[in-house]
Amino acid sequence: MKTIEEIRTLLFEQREEILKRDLGVEREKLAKISKLKNTPYSIVISGLRRVGKSTLLSQLAHKLYPKGDYFYVNFEDERFLTFTAADFSQLHELLIELFGDQKTFLFDEIQNIEGWERFINRMINGGYKFYITGSNASLLSKELGTKLTGRYIPIELFPFSYKEYLTFNKVEVPDLTRLTTVQKGKLKKTFADYLKKGGIPQSLQYPQLPVNKNLYSDIINRDIGSRYKLAETKPLRELSFYLLSNISTLVSYNKLKELLQLGSVNTVSSYIDYLEASWLLLVINRYAYSVKKQQIANKKVYCIDTGLDKSVAFSFSKNQGRLLENTVFLKLRRLQNEGIYYYKTKKDHEVDFYLPSKKIFIQVSKSIIGDPNTRQRELQALSEAMEEVEKTTGIIITEDEKEKIEFAGKNIKVLPIYEWLLDDKV
Questions:
Q1: Any idea where the AAA domain is (predicted)?
Q2: What does the alpha-carbon distance between residue 45 and residue 57 come to, in Å, rounded to a whole number?
């Protein structure tokens, strides 16, 4: 660790930083975190780089601890490069010396310090409260549950939701039960912009800068290349580029191995695991009662942000349907971090999403009015799935259509995506 004087200066600077940081758009997750203040559990906030985790820490500091009765340390600062787990006790002493004996810690990007969980476990036993952020999905893994002996609550922070995007742009969320023509037009316009730009805060704040491309480079080189000690990142970059260019489609690990000449299926699987751990990509399985069948079936891959995807991927056509499906997935993933599948009927028709815990099937289509064949295909797949799984609900999310349909004895709701995204439920 650096000298005592250098660390003192660093801690003072970081304290000023969190007090003066622009709080921006109040994140939806803040309400959930606020309810957990008086619990004995640590709060572990994980998410993509530059998604706003530090800002969220500032928001909760100002809202939950307005008197400043907390410690704040940002381990992303390069001046912590030589810091080790053995230095935590000395750091705690310095924090007490500078800011008094506080019972609450706000630790930013904690994954940079190997063995950090031992210090936190010891302090939790002493009655201290921790809010921890990190840019690696391992912070939410079962392994972490063992490290923190189950005494933590995971919070996933995603790029702005559509509702947060509206707040960022100072657009009032209207009453969806009484939409005027003007309100509907404004929602359609803002949603089209949201689909194109995505919800990464810095990218929206500084559209003139290549924020998303730099973010992608950091993920590949720092979060994956350096973390997993890859000899070269070119194969990983080629795989990620291919997947980002084919979001919302079925992929086979075997075919990816052959197409990109990646040596083995294990290499493909490992690389995709790395991309998931860095929050760039998210993968879902086919629904099956057998875990083995789920594992060997093709996967569907989604990007954490449509704006990031459009900034990096090869756009061979304006495939609005894929982006719509990706956006629907992201809302589902915000609501639940497991139990999201795609579904294949016995006649091999695909339904985009199945949520077994809620018994809901969801199909996504740009439109089911313009093309009779598309309408027939989407309704046929949904009705078959609903026939195979009793007591299920069927929904079709479209770009701008709303109706109730009875098809093959099944009742199916059709909803415009901009309305569905603003509903807090599925």
A1: 42-166
A2: 9
36 and 131 in a single domain? The answer is: yes
* Residue 150 confidence (pLDDT): 72
Provide the residue range defining the domain that includes 177.
Answer: 163-204
The Cα 330–Cα 352 span in angstroms is: 13
SS3 51: coil
* 168 and 153 housed in the same domain: no
Closest by CA to 82, choosing from 184, 160, 3, is 3
- Could you tell me if 18 and 57 are in contact, meaning their C-beta atoms sit under 8 angstroms apart? yes
In-domain check, residue 186: yes
pLDDT in tens, 247-306: 999 999 999 999 999 989 999 999 999 999 999 999 999 999 888 888 889 999 999 999
- For the chain, residues with pLDDT lower than 70 are 1-2, 138-143, 145-146, 316-318
| pLDDT for residue 138 | 66
> Do residues 150 and 168 both lie within one domain?
no
Whole-model pTM over 0.85: yes
- Phi/psi at 344 (5° precision): -115, 130
Distance between first and last Cα of the chain: 49
Number of Cβ within 10 Å of residue 177's Cβ equals: 6
Residue pointed to by tokens 């922070």:
157
Q: What's the 3-state SS for 118-138?
A: HHHHHHHHCCCEEEEEECCHH
Cα distances from 166 to residues 57, 171, 189, 332, in angstroms, run 22, 5, 11, 19
Looking at residue 158, what DSSP letter applies? Answer: P
| Together in a domain, 112 and 140 | yes
